[in-house]
Design a protein that fits this description.
By secondary structure, the chain is an alpha/beta fold. It folds into three domains: about 325 residues, Up-down Bundle (ABC transporter transmembrane region fold), CATH 1.20.1560.10; about 220 residues, P-loop containing nucleotide triphosphate hydrolases (Rossmann fold), CATH 3.40.50; about 35 residues, no CATH class. It has 23 helices and ten strands. The strands form two sheets. The protein has a six-stranded mixed beta sheet, sandwiched between helices. A four-stranded antiparallel beta sheet has the order 2-1-4-5, with helices on one face. Helix 20 crosses helix 21. The longest helix is centred in the middle third of the chain and has 53 residues. It is elongated. It starts with a helix and ends with a helix. The chain binds adenosine-5'-triphosphate. The site of adenosine-5'-triphosphate has 12 residues, from helix 12.
């Protein structure tokens, strides 16, 4: 079974057709939708009755009576029509907004369920645009598609039947005029969906480019690259405008066309109807009623005509939303946690090969064993595959050959949440959530420790005084004005890992921003943590890794050798070169160790 086949499937309710998404959007408010539909139909029925009452009013006046009853009926009909139509529109607006909120939540859940590499490949900015702009577009057509169009279609059809009952000749004039206009409108509708989709895609690319640029803003400013990065953004701004204009051009002609048809129909009905009244083939009362129906169907006809256009635009967004909802999610894994056999290594790679997307392999048949206790260091030149090893352990990436095991069980056979609960990860960027220092520190704890415990951990990394000195202490929000320095973030990321319930710590370059004193603190903390946990450290600094229980030397995606510092110095040329490259004096300092190790070998 391939990774794609094993991926979590999308809710089958969504089906394959865009209309299923609209149905899904309304599913929690079916009762409200039915009520809104009934109210809209009632409003249409009131409107359809008005011309008959007016007609009988005309007859009453013609017969010399005062049309008091008809006047009262007319007032009641008009007021009832306004109330029912307003109420229906309000209910539908509510349903549309909450339905769009549901769709957005589904999209956010799916995006968070995707693998980081897939999110990166799709573009974070584009995903944001789909969740905001496309969902808004869908919301804006939901009421048109669900009630306004169907009710207007019913209203137009019923009016045409009633008009036919009044005078079929005049009906033919009206139908012929609107049929010709309808054919012309179809031409304009055909391009709308295409340009609508292109516009939404351009909005997505614009969001993507702007997000990337804003993330790199300090570097852009430092290199005075504002002009250069603006160009590609402006290209997308222009693409949005071009495609929006194409949509607007098509949409702009729909209402005027319907208006022209309306005027031709009115002129035709006035001329032919007038002649028919003079010849006695049509009564004045029926003539007035027919004209009222004709005026009355204009609005619903416009709604149907422009509704087709808006639905085309909505459909262009539906496709983009469905692409997100159908995106491959991470596999949740089995429900039950596997038993951990005594003596099993914390991590084991057996002949593991891996690649990103369809690129060249970055790990080639890698074998690696990380004992359940002690510090294991991964070293190697940049690009050797060290971070990829950590990604595989976390299941951010699947190997295409070989197996990765945690505590003796293939990571695929761990429930994903349990697997990640067993592992604490400090990424290279020491990423902090947009949350308080406290929330960031206790992120990996099932039961959050009290502030004293958090401060104790902060003290051990030498961060307690700095945090206590902040005006809001542990409540300081990261990402805002009162932010931390790079080295402070790195130590806070370490606190987060140390406080967590995990029994495997993966640390990617944890000392890269630390001064000598803090590096020493880090090493003693790692030693302490490694007494009852597995600690894997990726580091370039020799001082961080040289005392590790095991050092694994990686080269070109393979683990070439593993041993202590002195063992590797003695037998691994690549490791020796790495050490030499860091400091000319290091090998001299280690000469005794090399000699001792060589004689032991
Ligand atoms: N998300 C990614 N998509 C595509 N290729 C990637 C990705 N991440 C890493 N690579 C490639 O995989 C290879 C190994 O990268 P990795 O980050 O594992 O190396 P590393 O040894 O940790 O490097 P460094 O010491 O510079 O952090 C590199 O050639 C890199 O270009």
């Amino acid at each position: 079974m391939t990774a794609g086949q094993r991926a979590e499937s999308v809710d089958p309710v969504l089906g394959r057709k865009p209309v299923h998404l609209l149905r899904h959007m309304m599913r929690r408010s079916r009762g409200t939708v039915v009520l809104a539909l009934l109210l809209a139909l009632a409003s249409a029925a009131f409107a359809l009755t008005v011309p008959y009452v007016v007609s009988s009013m005309v007859e009453a006046v013609g017969a010399g009576r005062t049309p008091v009853r008809q006047g009262a009926e007319l007032a009641l009909l008009v007021i009832s029509g306004a109330v029912t139509s307003g109420w229906s529109a309000y209910l539908l607006g509510r349903v549309g907004e909450f339905g769009a909120a549901d769709i957005r939540k589904m999209m956010v859940r799916r995006i968070l369920a995707m693998r980081p590499a897939d999110v990166r490949a799709r573009g974070a900015g584009d995903l944001v645009a789909r969740t905001t702009a496309d969902a808004q577009q869908l919301r804006s057509v939901s009421d048109v598609a669900v009630t306004a169009m169907p009710v207007s279609a019913v209203m137009v059809s019923a009016s045409l039947v009633l008009m036919g009952l009044l005078d079929w000749v005049l009906l033919l004039v009206v139908v012929a005029t609107f049929a010709v206009a309808g054919l012309a409108i179809r031409v304009f509708l055909s391009g709308m969906r295409r340009s609508g989709r292109a516009r939404q895609q351009a909005v997505g690319s614009l969001a993507e480019r702007l997000t990337t640029v804003l993330a790199a803003l300090p570097v852009i400013k430092a290199y005075r690259a504002e002009e250069r990065v603006s160009e590609p953004i402006f290209e997308q701004v222009d693409a949005v405008a071009r495609n929006a204009v194409a949509c607007d051009r098509a949409q702009a002609f729909i209402s005027p066309l319907a208006g022209v048809a309306q005027q031709i129909a009115i002129i035709g009905v006035l001329a032919i109807g007038g002649a028919r009244v003079s010849s006695g083939r049509l009564s004045p009362a029926h003539y007035v009623a027919f004209l009222m129906y004709l005026f009355q169907i204009i609005n619903p006809l416009m709604t149907v005509a422009s509704g087709f256009g808006r639905i085309q635009l909505g459909l262009s967004s539906v496709g983009r939303i469905l692409e997100v909802l159908r995106a491959r999610a991470e596999r949740p894994g089995p429900a039950a946690e596997p038993a951990v056999p005594a003596g099993a290594p914390a991590l084991e790679f057996r002949a593991v090969s891996a690649r990103y997307q369809d690129a060249e392999p970055v790990l080639r048949r890698m074998d690696l064993k990380v004992p359940a206790r002690g510090v294991t260091a991964l070293v190697g030149v940049s690009g050797a595959g060290k971070t990829t090893v950590l990604n595989l352990a976390e299941r951010f990436l699947d190997p295409y050959a070989g197996t990765v095991s945690l505590h003796g069980t293939d990571v695929d056979r761990w429930p994903l949440a349990a697997l990640r609960g067993r592992i604490a990860y400090v990424d290279q960027a020491c990423t902090m959530l947009d949350a308080t220092i406290r929330e960031n520190a206790v992120l990996g704890c099932a039961a959050a420790p009290d502030d004293a415990a958090v401060f104790d951990a902060l003290r051990r990394v030498g961060l307690a005084d700095a945090i206590a000195a902040l005006p809001q202490g542990l409540d300081t929000r990261l990402g805002g004005g009162g932010d931390l320095s790079g080295g402070q973030r790195q130590r806070l990321a370490l606190v987060r890992a140390l406080l967590s319930d995990a029994d495997v710590l993966l640390l990617d370059e944890p000392s890269s921003q630390l001064d000598g004193l803090n590096e020493e603190r880090l090493l003693s903390l790692l030693d302490e943590a490694a007494r009852d946990r597995a600690v894997v450290v990726v580091a370039h600094r020799l001082s961080t890794i040289r005392d590790s229980a095991q050092i694994v030397y990686l080269e070109d995606g393979s683990a070439l050798d593993a041993g202590t510092h002195s063992e590797l110095l003695a037998r691994c040329a690549g490791y020796r070169a790495l050490v030499r490259s860091q400091s000319g004096g290091v090998l001299d300092q280690d000469r005794d160790a090399v000699v001792a190790a060589s004689s032991a070998v």
